[in-house]
Design brief:
Helix content is about 45%, strand content about 20%. It is an alpha/beta fold and about 300 residues long. It folds into 2 domains: about 1-175, 3-Layer(aba) Sandwich (Rossmann fold), CATH 3.40.50.720; about 180-300, N-(1-d-carboxylethyl)-l-norvaline Dehydrogenase, domain 2 (Orthogonal Bundle). Strands 1, 2, 3, 4, 5, 6, 7, 8, 9 and 10 form a 10-stranded mixed sheet that branches. The chain starts with a strand and ends in a 6-residue tail after the last helix.
């Protein structure tokens, strides 16, 4: 497959490297020092699942020299979605699929408005990875899974082709017939993890062990589930309990990427996580006081230092 990766950070860099190493025609679209390092020395991935060193690697600063592709994989931070969607428009062929592996629940709407529903797919990435230094991706842990699918649940040829490419690359991938549900399930988890670890500046272990912070985490998750259901998303009745059980199985020292950004003084995705719960809750008259408080506490840090 001919694949363009818009955003070569932790998610795009890791999965794009796996696909390229397996022989897929992958072009990364990157910027800044990361772009220059990839041009000069290729792309390295450090992972418990196996290290990679790709040199040379196909990387561009924009879409002009790439041409139409089969799949556009968008993996930029949420505040860059509009720009990424504009980039994707220049990469479209008649059957191109544009799939976002970003956090939050807003990306699909933005991409659909930019490229049309017929090109838009949905996706979820489960991985802890980041740019360790320009040209180097660090994958933490062993979780590295992609779930994706068409918005109407159709098992299209392009979705199946991407699934086959991922499997050939050794990527744990799943083709979903209800990708909107999967996106919301991850959103529920991520709002809890990002909000509570960033608010307390603490890994998940102490948060889930202390009775008060554990109950606060549960309230964050419960509010998000209530908003999802009011928005028409049919989350299972046991979603809150399942999310808490899943959280109990995480490494005690796990933190969210948002806490990492907060510590480094980087821009935060809080507007699209706890802030989105607050915004969407007000749209459907669902009270979200805990998420609103988290959003208020972090909002002044949202633009970084």
């Amino acid at each position: 497959m001919k694949i363009a990766i818009v955003g070569a950070g932790g998610v795009g860099g890791y999965f794009g490297a796996r696909l390229a190493a397996a022989g897929e025609d992958v072009t990364f679209i990157a910027r800044g020092a990361h772009l220059e390092a990839m041009r000069k020395g290729g792309l390295k991935v450090h992972s418990a699942l196996g290290d990679l060193a790709l040199a040379p690697v196909k990387v561009e600063s924009g879409p002009d020299d790439v041409g139409p592709v089969d799949i556009v994989l968008i993996a930029v931070k949420l505040w860059s979605t509009e720009g990424a969607a504009h980039t994707a428009k220049s990469l479209l062929g008649p059957g191109t699929g544009v799939v976002s592996f970003q956090n939050g629940v807003d990306a699909i709407g933005i991409i659909t408005r930019a490229v049309g529903r017929e090109h838009t797919m949905g996706g979820v990435a489960h991985i802890a990875a980041l740019i360790e230094e320009p040209g180097v991706i660090r994958h933490n842990g062993t979780m590295a899974r992609l779930t994706f699918g068409e918005l109407d649940g159709n098992r299209s040829e392009r979705a199946q082709a991407l699934h086959r490419a991922c499997q050939a690359a050794g990527i744990d991938s799943h083709l979903s017939q209800d990708i909107q549900l999967v996106i919301w399930e991850k959103f529920v988890f991520l709002v809890g993890l990002s909000g509570m670890t960033s608010l307390t500046r603490t890994p998940i272990g102490p948060i889930r062990e202390d009775p008060l912070t554990r109950e606060t985490l549960r309230e964050v998750i419960s509010e998000t589930v209530a908003v999802a259901r009011a928005q028409g998303v049919d989350l299972p009745a046991d979603t809150v309990d399942r999310q808490m059980t899943f959280t109990d199985g995480l490494p005690a020292d796990m933190v969210s990427s948002m806490l990492g950004d907060l510590r480094r003084g980087n821009r935060l995705e809080v507007d699209c996580l706890s802030g989105a719960v607050d915004r969407l809750g007000r749209e459907v008259n669902v009270a979200t006081p805990v998420n609103r408080t988290i959003y208020a506490a972090l909002k002044l840090h949202a633009n970084g230092t």
